[in-house]
Amino acid sequence: MKIAIASGKGGTGKTTVAVNFALSIENVQLFDCDVEEPNCHLFLGFNLEKVEDINILTPVVDKTKCDFCGKCSEFCQFNAIAVLPEDVLVFPALCHGCGGCAMVCPKDAIVYENRSIGIIEKSKGGNIEFYRGVLNIGEAMSSPVIKALKKHVDESKTAIFDAPPGTACPVISSVQGADYCILVTESTPFGFHDLLLALDVLRKLEIPFGIIINRCDIGDDRVEKYCDTERIPVLMKIPHDRKIARLYSEGIPFVNRIPEWKVKFVQLLDKIQAQI
Amino acid sequence: MKELTVISGKGGTGKTTIAAALVSLAENAVIADCDVDAADMHLILQPEIIETIDVSGLKVASIDETLCIKCGICKDACRFDAITNDIRIDIYGCEGCGVCAYACPEGAISMIERKAGDAYNSETRFGPMAHARLGIAEEASGLLVAVVRDNARKLAEKYDRDLIIIDGPPGTGCSVIASIAGVDMVLVVTEPSVSGIHDLERILDVADHFNIPAVVCINKYDINEKNSLIIEEYCKDRGIEVVGKLPYDDTPTKAMIQEMTVIEYSDGEFSNKVKDLWENVREKLT
Ligand code: SF4
Ligand code: SF4
Ligand code: SF4
Ligand code: SF4
Q: Domain B58-113 - what CATH class?
C-alpha cells in the first residue's frame, strides 16, 4: 500500500508525521518526495548512498550542419531553444528534454546529451528502507526527480511518500498513484484555506484521504467543524506540546522519546486500511 | 523601482505573516502574492478584486479516437510516460510538449488550450495588490508567478509606487526561481530547527546561484536558542546579515484569525521587533 502525506500549507508537520509513522510500523519504505527541501534524513540519522543521477536529455546543436532555419525553436513549447541569424542558443534550465527539436530538425543537426538535475539516495542500513531525491540548486523541475524516486517502491511493503508543500506539480507528482493520502493541517485560517485547496486536488485525482490535525489546540475549531459536516475522517490529533516542538527542533523523532505515540501510529495504519 | 521577495525554503516559518506585516509598514509599495498554489496573503489583506485575467498555461494533448489506429508511435515518442498502454493521455503527466502530435502518422492528436489559473489585480487597505489562483491540479505555477510579477510592475508604474513586496513560495524549484529572478533582494525567513537550518542553506545557495543579495530573519528564535546561534554564526561566515530575530509568540495566529497584520493587531514585543526588521530591510534596499 502506498500512502502519501501532503498538506497544502507548508510547515504543518508533514515530515514529522511521515518519519514518526514510518518508525512505528513494520515492513515499511519511506520516500522523501520534497526534493527541493528534503528533511526526513535529518530525523533518521542514516548514512546515505547515491543510487542514481537523474538526467534530462538536453539538445546540443552541431553548427556545421545547422542552416538556422528556426524550426526547432518554433516547435519548442518551453522557449528553451532560440535561433539567431548565425547562432542557436539552448537554455538548459528551461528545457524539458521532450526530444521535439531533434525530431523536427531537417538537417539532423541536433543530438542530446545528459544533464544531471538531481540525484536519488538511499539509506545504508537503518531499520527502515529510506529513499530521497535531491534537486540540484538552480534547477526548476522537480517532477522528473520525484517520478524517478517513486520507481523504487516495493509493492510488498507499505510505502510512505512525504510530499512537498503546496498544490502544484511537485505535489501532484508525489501523490499520484498513492492508494491513500493523509493531509496534515493546523486549525488556523492559513492552514484551513490551504487544506481546502489540497482537498480539491485529491478529489480531482480521486485519491481517498483523511486528516491529521497538528498543534490541534492552537487556532480555532474550523477544521474539525468542516471535517464533521463533510464526513472527512480525522485520523489523529497531535497537541501543541513544547516537548514535541523541542524534539522537532533538534531533529529527534518524538516516537523515540514518547513511545505511547508508536501505538497511535500503528492504529493510524489500521484506520487507513479500514477506510480503503 | 525596487523588488523584495520574502522566501523561506522550508514552509511554515512565518513568511506570509512577515510579508503582510512589511506591507503594512511600507508607505509606497505594491504587493505581489507569488505563492500561487497556496496563496494566503489575501486572507489578511482582504483585497477587493478590480480585474481578473485568464491565464492559459501549456497545452495538453488530446487524441481523436475515431482517427487513432493504436499504432503506439505516440506512446513511444512521449518522454514523460504520459500516454498509457491503451493509448490514453494522462492529463496530469502531459507536459504539453507536442511531440506526440508531431509523431502521429494519422494526425489523430491535437494540442488543446489549458487554463493555468486566474490572475487578479486588486486594491487593499495598504495599496494595490497582484495575486493569482492556480487552477485545481494545474501545473503551470511558474508561468502564473511570472504573470503576477508582471502585473505588479504595471501596478507600480500606474500608481507610482517605488517598491514591490513579493510573498514567494516555499521550496527551491520552478516557482521559487520565477519569484526571485531579477529582484533586488530576498529576505529569507527561517526558524531554529535542524530542518530550518538545512533549508536555509539550500535557499541561500539558490539566491547565490542567481546572484541575488540575501538577508535573513530568524522567526521563533527562542524555541531553540542554541540553533539560533548556529544560524547566526553560519550567516556571518557567509557574509549575510541577520536583519531580525522574532520571538515565539501567539500574536501571528491571533492576528490571522482577526484578518489583521500583526502590526494592526498589537503593538507588543512581536510587532516592535517586526518594525525593527523593516527598518533594517529598508536601509539595505536603498
Ligand atoms: S531546426 Fe535544425 S537546422 Fe533548423 S535551426 Fe534548428 S538546429 Fe538548425
Ligand atoms: S528537447 Fe524539447 S524542451 Fe528541450 S529544447 Fe528541444 S524542443 Fe525544447
Ligand atoms: S500515434 Fe496516433 S494513431 Fe498511433 S496510437 Fe498514437 S494517436 Fe493513435
Ligand atoms: S504532449 Fe508531450 S507530454 Fe503530452 S502526451 Fe504528447 S508527447 Fe507526452
A: alpha beta
Rounded mean pLDDT, B145-153: 97
Q: What is the pLDDT of residues B166-204, one digit of tens each?
A: 999 999 999 999 999 999 999 999 999 999 999 999 999
Ligand nearest to the CA of B87: 3
* Element spanning A89, H or E: strand A87-90
The alpha carbon dihedral of A104, A107, A113, A117 has a sign of negative
| Statement: B2-56+116-285 belongs to CATH 3.40.50.300 | yes
CB contact (8 A) between residue B193 and residue A251: yes
Question: How far is B80 from B44, CA to CA, in rounded Å?
Answer: 40
∠ Cα B244 B179 B221 (to 5°)? 20
Residue-range definition of the domain harbouring residue A219: 2-54+117-275
* Residue B57 binned pLDDT confidence (cut-offs 50, 70, 90): confident
Instruction: Identify the pLDDT of residue B137.
Output: 84
| pLDDT over threshold 90, residue B31 | yes
Question: pLDDT at position B136, please?
Answer: 87
Q: Does B250 touch chain A (CB under 8 A)?
A: yes
**Out of A97, A167, A245, closest to residue B223 by CB:** A245
Q: Is A88 helix (H, G, I), strand (E, B) or coil?
A: strand
- High-pLDDT (> 70) share of chain A, %: 99
Give the span between the Cα atoms of B191 and B168, in whole angstroms. Answer: 17
- Chain B: residue whose CA lies nearest to A13: B12
DSSP character at residue B160: T
CB A22 within 8 A of CB A127: no
Helices vs strands, H then E, count in chain B: 11, 11
ipTM of the complex: 0.90
Q: What is the mean pLDDT of residues B261-268?
A: 94
> What is the domain-level CATH number for residue A92?
3.30.70.20
Residue from the list B99, B170, B174 with its beta carbon closest to the beta carbon of A103: B99
Neighbours of A152 (CB within 10 A): 16
Residue B259 burial class via C-beta count within 10 angstroms: exposed 0-12, middle 13-18, buried 19 and up: middle
pLDDT averaged over every residue in chain B: 94
Q: How far apart are CA B35 and CA B18, in angstroms?
A: 14
Q: Is B247 in the pocket of ligand 4 (CB under 6 A)?
A: no
Domain limits, chain B = 2-56+116-285, 58-113
* Residue range A20-26: mean pLDDT, rounded: 94
pLDDT range class, residue A218, cuts 50, 70, 90: confident
